[in-house]
C-alpha cells in the first residue's frame, strides 16, 4: 500500500458586491481565513460569546477564474489517475454558493466550463500523449435523490430498462453500484454528449436562495484502464475519478421551502449531517467503527472517504455578512475534512489471457533449454510433453509385470514418468483391493461391526457356525478371522474359523493380492445364499476406452457466440483500432483467416530456417575443431618422422578417423546449406504472400470503415450486396457530398471559427447534438398531442 496523506481542502468564495470586509479576512499566505463577529450587546455585560475563528486550509480561492480553480484543485488528481491512482473531487457548501458552477460550469460558454468537462479534456489529451499505452475510458453518472439511486444516463437509446432497483454492493475490490450503466467513450465528444445528457436529467428546483438549486447529490465517475502496447507484461493499471456535486445545505427559514421542495431539503440536510458524522469519525483515530451505511451518499463514497484515493474537497462559501453562520458551518466541515487521511496506491491487475501466453512462451524456452542439457549429457531424445493414453497404458503394464516378478526394474526417464509410475501403483493396488473384496462378497456376507441392527438380524436369521458363534468379528487388523464372543471359552477355535482362514488365503493367492486390504471394519459371516458376483475390472486400455466414450457423450460448448442486436450507428465514428477488430470478425473474417494461415506458415518456415542455421553453425564449429585436431596430429607425425610405403604416407588410426569425420562433416554441411537456401526461398515467397494479404486486408478495411461510418445511412442501401454501387467503386468524398446540406457546411465553417479555438470543437459539437435531440423530442411530443386532439 502507499503512504498515508491528508485530504486537501480548498475554499472558494462566491464573488459579490456586498463582501463583508470587516468580518472575513484572508491571510498573507492565502491559506488562512479569519472570521470576526461582533458581540451581541443584548446578552448583557457578562458575555462569553465566541467572536473570532481562524481556519487553516490548503488555499483560499477568492475571485478566481475557472482555469485557476482547475489548475489548483483537480489537475494533479486527474494526471495521477492515468498512473493507476484513484481520485475524488467533492464540492460542498451552502445552497447557491457555487458548487454546481465549480463542478460543471456554464455549458453555454466554453470558457466558463467547470472541473468536470476540463477533467474529461485532460484525460483524452493525456491519452494522445501516451501512444505506447492502450487506454480505455468509461463513464457513469449517478444521482442520489431522496435516498434513492437513479441512473442519469438511463435515457440513452442503447440502455435497456432496469427491472430491479439499483443497490450499493461491496466486494473485495471495493464499492460499486449494481444496475448503474457504464458507457465506453472512445472520443472526447462522446464523453461530453454523455455529460450533457446526464445534466439535462438532473432534478432542480427554485427557492429564494437559488433559482436553479440542485435537489440531489450527483457522482460522475470516469473509469480509466491502461495497458502497455510495447511490454508483454500481464499487469495493467485501473483507476477511477469520482467528481461529486453535493446538494447544498439550506436553512428552511431562509429558503422558505414548501411542499416537495421542503421534503427534498429535509433529505439533503439529513444526508449531509450523516456525511459530517462519517468525517468526524474518520478524523478520530480512536474510533473503530465508521458509520458509512447510515445513508446512500456515505455508503457510495466509502472508497473515497479515507480509502485508496487522492481526496480533494472544495468548500464553496458566501462572502456576505447575512450568510456568515452558514459560512462558519462550511468552514468547520472543511477543517474536519483536513484531519482525514487517505492511503492512495496504484491499482494493478493481471490480464489472465496475457499471463497464459507469457507462461506458454516461458514453457517453450524452458523445454528448449532442457533439450540442450539433454544433448550435452548425451541423453537420448526425451519427451517432456504430457503422456497420452498409450504411454499410460504401457506404464500400467510395466507396473503389473514388475509386481508379478517378470520385470526386474522400471527404467526412469523423467519426472513426469516417475509420477505416473507411482500413480499406476495406486491404480493397481486399488484394483486388487476391489478384486479381493468382490471375491469375498461372492462367498460371504460383509457386515459393518457398528451396524448393530444388521448384526441382530443375522443372529435372528440363524447365520451362525456349528458352535453357535458369529464368524468374522474384527480383531483390529483388517478383516477379522473369528474372534469369539464373551460367552465362549478363551483359546477355543472353531472349525469354521480354520475353514475361513484357508478360504481367505487361497482366494488371496488366486487373485494375486500383494498388499493388505483397505482398513474398513467389517464383520464376515457365512451366508446360506451367495451374493451376485461383481464383474472384475478390465485392464487399463478398457478403462481408457470407457473414459473416452464417456467424454464423447458430454455436450460440447457452442463455439458460435449468441447473436446480439447491434447498437445503432454511433454519432461519431469509433477509433480505427476498435473498428479494425470488428472488421476482422465480420466482413473481413475470410481475408483475416487467410492472412493468419499465411503468417503461421511463414513463422514455421522462419523457425525451420533458424533451426537449420543453428545446426549449420554447430557443424561449422565441429569442422573447425576437427581441423585443429587433424593439424595437431600432422604436426606430431612430422616431429616423430613420417613413414612411406610405395610413395604413400602412412598415418595412424586416430588421424585416419579424423579424416573420415571431417569428410562426413563437410558432406553434412553442404546438405544443410542446401536446405537453408531452399528454406530462405520459401520464406521470401511466404513473406510476399503475407504482405499481399495484409495490403488487401487494410484496403478492404478502409473501404468498409468509410462506407460504414461516413456514408449517410440513407445512401448505404446502394452499397449493400445487390446494390448498384460496389464497395470501393465510388470515392468517399463524392458519396458524402450527396447527403451534404447547408447544415453540414455550417458545421464545417463553425469548426474553423469557434471562439474557444480547436479545443472547443468537441464541447460545442456535443452541445449542439444535445439541443437537436431535445428539439426533436419536443416536436414529436407536440405532434402526438395534436394528433390526439
Written overview of the protein:
Helix 12 (415-443) packs antiparallel against helix 14 (495-511). 47% of the residues lie in helices and 15% in strands. The protein has 21 helices and 23 strands. The chain is α+β, with helices and mostly antiparallel strands. It starts with a strand and ends with a helix. The strands form seven sheets. Strands 2, 6, 7, 8, 9, 12, 15, 16, 17 and 19 form a ten-stranded mixed sheet that branches. A three-stranded antiparallel sheet has the order 3-4-5, covered by helices on one side. It is elongated and about 135 Å long.
Give a topology summary.
Elements: E1 5-6, E2 8-13, E3 24-26, E4 32-36, E5 52-56, E6 59-62, H1 66-73, H2 75-81, E7 87-93, H3 99-103, H4 115-128, E8 133-145, E9 148-151, E10 167-171, E11 174-178, E12 183-185, H5 188-200, E13 204-205, E14 213-214, E15 217-228, E16 235-245, H6 252-255, H7 260-283, H8 296-300, E17 310-317, H9 324-337, E18 341-342, E19 348-350, H10 352-376, H11 389-404, H12 415-443, E20 444-448, H13 452-461, H14 495-511, E21 522-526, H15 540-553, H16 576-585, H17 589-640, E22 643-645, E23 648-650, H18 653-709, H19 732-738, H20 742-753, H21 761-788
Parallel strand pairs: 2-6, 2-17, 7-16, 7-17
Antiparallel strand pairs: 1-18, 3-4, 4-5, 8-9, 8-12, 8-15, 10-11, 13-14, 15-16, 16-19, 20-21, 22-23
Helix pairs in contact: 4-5, 5-21, 11-12, 12-14, 17-18
